[in-house]
Specification:
single chain; 207 residues; mainly alpha; 10 helices; globular
């Protein structure tokens, strides 16, 4: 008997030995409608509370869900800009992410699926999709809107982040950082300029 047939026989025999009450219990449980968050009700409630607080905050301007991430990025980028170390900051960031990017490269090398790089950069990375809320795309292309304008405009009205623009961030942070990640994964990408709607497009370059 092959291994598959043997496993099926063992499972069938085990099912026959189940107590009738246990069988009924399993059937009942499997028939129930489930949310997928069973056991995480507290965490889910806290998450909804944070979302509602964030979206209900109109102090100074209408806050968005990504505000904390945006402000953290702006603070770090402005500090590097003022001190003339933005290139060093990008290099340090790419170096810090090397272990993660090496794992993605290993998957790409084993499967030959280069789109895995875009999945790693955008689709499964909370640091991206929690920052760029409209990020999307498939195949060899991903698009998103530059997320910094709302906070930049509000902060500049009170004298913060003077001289910092979305264009500067895009050219000196977003582009070189993502390209550095891609190179660490062994692939090439192109990053568009900001278009008239502040949209950004990343494309995978096939050999």
């Amino acid at each position: 008997m092959d291994s598959i047939g043997y496993e099926e026989q063992v499972m069938a025999e085990a099912a026959q030995k189940l107590d009738p009450v246990q069988k009924k219990s399993n059937v009942v449980e499997n028939m129930k409608m489930k949310s997928g968050f069973e056991g995480y009700e507290t965490e889910l409630g806290q998450a909804f509370s944070v979302v509602l607080k964030q979206l209900g905050n109109h102090a100074g301007y209408a806050h968005e869900l990504n505000d904390p991430l945006v402000k953290a990025h702006l603070m770090a980028i402005q500090f590097a800009k003022v001190n003339g170390t933005i290139a060093d900051y990008v290099a340090y960031d790419v170096e810090t992410m090397a272990p993660i990017n090496a794992r993605m490269k290993n998957v790409i090398d084993k499967t030959g699926e280069k789109e895995v790089a875009l999945v790693g950069l955008f689709d499964r990375t909370a640091c991206h999709y929690a920052l760029a809320l409209d990020s999307g795309g498939k195949g060899n292309t991903r698009t998103w809107t530059s997320p910094f304008k709302t906070v930049l405009d509000a902060c500049k009205r009170i004298g913060q982040f003077d001289g910092l623009t979305e264009e500067y961030i895009h050219e000196n942070w977003t582009k070189p950082r993502l390209i550095g990640y891609a190179e660490a994964m062994g692939v090439k990408i192109t990053i568009s300029d900001l278009d008239e709607n502040r949209q950004i497009t990343c494309e995978l370059v096939e050999d």
